[in-house]
Design a protein that fits this description.
homodimer; alpha/beta; seven-stranded mixed sheet; five-stranded parallel sheet; 24 helices
Amino acid sequence: MEALVSSPSSVHAKAIELGKQALKMTTAAGSGHPTSALSLAHIVVELMYRQMRYDPRDPWNPNSDRLVLSEGHAVPIVYAAYADLGGAVGHDRANPRYLTNDDLANLRELDSVLDGHPNPAEGFPFFDAATGSLGQGLSVAAGLALGARLDGIDKRIFVLIGDGEAREGQVWEAADFIADHRLSSVCAVFSCNGHGQADAVSPQQSPERLAEKLEAFSWDVVTLDGHDPEALSKAFARVGKGDRPLAIVARTVKGWGVASTLGKNFHGKPIPAADLDAALAELDDTAAQFGVVDVDPIEKPTAPASAPAAVARAAIKLPPFADALRKVGKESALQKKKLATRVAYGVALVALGDADDRIVALDGDVSNSTFSNMFAAAHPDRFFECKIAEQNMVSTGAGLSASGKIPFASTFAKFFARAVDQIDMAIISRANLKLVGSHSGISLGADGPSQMSVSDVAYFRSMTRVDDGRGGVACHLFNPSDPICAYRCCELMANIDGLCYLRTHRPDAPFLYPLDEQFSVGGCKKLREGNQLTLVSSGYIMHTVLEAAAQLAAAGVECSVFDAYTLPLDASPILDAARASGGRILTVEDNYAGGLHAELAEAAAKVGDVTVAGMTVSRIPKSAKSANEVFDYVGVGLNQITEQARKLAGN
Amino acid sequence: MEALVSSPSSVHAKAIELGKQALKMTTAAGSGHPTSALSLAHIVVELMYRQMRYDPRDPWNPNSDRLVLSEGHAVPIVYAAYADLGGAVGHDRANPRYLTNDDLANLRELDSVLDGHPNPAEGFPFFDAATGSLGQGLSVAAGLALGARLDGIDKRIFVLIGDGEAREGQVWEAADFIADHRLSSVCAVFSCNGHGQADAVSPQQSPERLAEKLEAFSWDVVTLDGHDPEALSKAFARVGKGDRPLAIVARTVKGWGVASTLGKNFHGKPIPAADLDAALAELDDTAAQFGVVDVDPIEKPTAPASAPAAVARAAIKLPPFADALRKVGKESALQKKKLATRVAYGVALVALGDADDRIVALDGDVSNSTFSNMFAAAHPDRFFECKIAEQNMVSTGAGLSASGKIPFASTFAKFFARAVDQIDMAIISRANLKLVGSHSGISLGADGPSQMSVSDVAYFRSMTRVDDGRGGVACHLFNPSDPICAYRCCELMANIDGLCYLRTHRPDAPFLYPLDEQFSVGGCKKLREGNQLTLVSSGYIMHTVLEAAAQLAAAGVECSVFDAYTLPLDASPILDAARASGGRILTVEDNYAGGLHAELAEAAAKVGDVTVAGMTVSRIPKSAKSANEVFDYVGVGLNQITEQARKLAGN
């Protein structure tokens, strides 16, 4: 599509009209960032009124061009435009509500869809992902562009990024990724108003530096005046024309049009009510300067053909484990009766991809360790190599989720620590994202602590009882002990609409279950019966716990053993079993505190009739040749477990 | 210093000798990355034998040039060089042990100082920080360079980074920071062997792209053959000569000298024992090709003047709170009897800076929100603006810690989620780093969930009972409820050798304590006496809990209230109080699960004579105008607390 011919005067008029709304709504809210909003006034008008092919009354249309406001704090200007356009809000495409200017007065109210920062989950479907923690939008755009490409949709994704924000390394991870994948449907606009929060931006983020950087990152770059409608219109006409993505480096003015009222570097504060009239009058003066007095109404954006919403599908079913193994040439595991859980993940992922074309996979240059390379071989068009850049991988996954895909993103469990803020934002967005961390815990041994995930369980567990506002919880964690359970956990994850985290492990794990065993969300399994103590564990260290239970039984101490392979956990079967056998629980984990021990202690301490002791990784690990040596070193070794169990069983 | 004239033949000879050691030691260990090690063979020889001004027998000398191996998996080549040089290992400068070639056979053993990835904490003082999670080394180098500048030491910091690793956004955050601060003592060498783990590196990380990127980031750039001793020597001679940092883009060969034995893309696996002789023979052939048969012994590196270790200092003492307030013009708080804990942090930080010149501060463009700007005003030479790049800020802090400084790094609590992997690595390094998260929890209200830290307590708590191997724990968390406690928590933090996390809050908080109240590591305070229920809380929400306790008392339900301002917590006073008053505890927190509730439930469930119920943030938050509205929305509002307390008290 050719860009519409601009009418500079009408763009200025609209920018000023929306600018006034942004000032008024933030003053009414008593907080917000009007000056960043004004920097974007012309860019937003140009995009939302002239460039984007969409119908504001149907933002759900998958054929629409999209806007990602990476500098989320500037959102009032978008809210103002969307209200002016009568954009649809809410959660129901069939029964939308249309935003009006009156709604703007409710910015940041508890019952308003106009959250402090963009958030589709609160009923603002014009956006695809929550933003506001800076530097993530370009990665989300990459995911949206990949999703559109998979679906054969010719849509463009516009991203607005601040100059100060461009300091975030993730922006450059995304720039690399978008160049690698030739996602020329993405257009990134850098708004260079020269001011951060505390001070001016660094010369490293000047328009000149940014343009040079973007060129070095293989982007097509245009530098222009971000308040010049004609220049913007001309630049946007280039989007998607070449095979390189387009970056627009826009010189903008913080608090455009009201600069003298504000003074400089006025960030994150609304205009005091007493000064509002002066600011609005200054905008009128600005309008007069531009000769904007009485303009033609601005044209409405062109809408693409409407497409129906995705049809609800039946649950995704995996084939029998043995069939899935045979399909990928891993049937030797059936004889050996052992397989690493990370390989089971690869087997499951291939089968999920066979079963449903929404399944896509991402990996961070370790697909031969995580075994997502099996999916890459089976479904190459749906595999996205993200290289060593985990932040971008997670936010790109959130973008793919917003496109209706079911993304599985894998790396070493430890390296998801690189992307915690991105995971947080995916959860706020209610992204349907699956994270798979291989080499989890400490069983990888020799590589040492820089490769060991030990805080991951506490972090993910913190969200497992948090209501997501849709009848689910913010996060499900899976930590299977054997490949059969791992395989089925992947099936459970594919059918949960929300964020899931799967821990897989490096070493081969013996089968603990029949091949056709079924597992459930919130479930656990009793692996051994005993009447003196209840042992609870999960993940690879379960095998050490079972060995301990066998030794204890040989010494006359009979323990039950539970596999608590998922959180949140329905603890009642474990508590009931403990009540029936001495009232004592011992948890064993290969992670730091805050996992199973906390889960069961919290459940038990409600009533107080069962005691819970916990063994977790009790010192900072180091390298050792074997998993067992590391287990001993950090206090969760075989002998330490049997000793502790004996003590608790009073034996 | 002029670089030594190279003797290419001797450098080749040494590179081959060390390369053989790297092959042998990884084969012996049964794991490791020999091919990455060989890529660096010449660079490491050039640096460790010719360029660096240091005495391998005294790596503790603060005047020494430093090497940061950002691509930590290549460490065997450094271990081989260090053993050859008889470098000192251990923890005691007065009683070092000198490494020998025999030690190399113990790579990755539990009792070896040769951990799988670099780690000074395991007794390898040649390094300053643990590496192995990629992309962090350049930031550590920035911290070392800042520390040297503060101390007036003319030392150079060399950093080795992989081409695949250069995809990590943090590398570019560090590149910006180093350019901003004109840290021309830093030299970054990018080893471009063209191979990542799973595949070839992207064209975006080619030597050409990297050189162009680095130039766009304002660095001086030399591209050369990384196996050419003369080219390396000439390039290193430029370090520190101009006002720009030097980047060397080195074309290297993965598995240099044994490429035909290995085939291509042989990552993360040692050579099987059966192939070792062939590989060693191929290195001999390579030596013959270079005419290396019988070379002069290579010169030993030039050592700088030796400097003594820092003298142990007395505990850092803060002045009385009222004096500190007056010093910075905040004495009005004494009349109002309230002050935000984040302002109390600023007050404390200025006073700490007055008391000890090792105190330095970093901030990520929000110093006017965290109040670290008070320190910037009082001690401008010791304040480092990191802009919007939290990963770099945390790792730079770890580098400053390795220079003997006591860095306090601040941003919004939520944005430390951006740097979790960097915090993990700082903890593995045993860095003496203090993190201060302002606007913690949900009390900031209107800005919404993208700015709210709700998983932070679970994450940091997971490490609060983990032995750091030095008699301490891996992490201390502080969550003060009032400014007097916040002020004293800063003093406690400054005197703990290790990582600490302080939560501060946006709203003003009334004084709860006398001005001269003292606090302790592991301590808690009883704020109210009651005999029907024990309420436990911390942070800003404590004020709501106290209001609830007052309402309950008015309704005849007498509750004790404890302020559990720090973790790990000695829970016994709280458990004892609960035992004496009905045996029931209710915790209230403004974060997701895994904090105080877990801490007290774990303690109580050991014995089972006290029950614990917990109220945490039970749904994903959204914007609302006031803190109290958000508290209500997520289930920890005033009425919800009183209702829950009544229920538990049976009233």
